[in-house]
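Now for our specimen.

. . .
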Amino acid sequence: MIQQASAAPSASTVEDRSTSFQGKGPSNEAVPGGNLLITAYILVFLVVLLMVVRVFQRQTAVAKRLDELEADLKKKK
């Protein structure tokens, strides 16, 4: 008789793998995950900072324009 190779892993192997992380083998990552995380946080921080600066600039421009309009109203009275 010819014995067939078992395609499914044994029960003990499945249980061992389900209770702990086991990688497939050596990693070929060019950029470690920690550096990616730090880069992502820096980019998000910069975007938020630029948004805050832009809102401040626009608010200052609106306040200046409002002062000009109030001055024009006072002149017309």
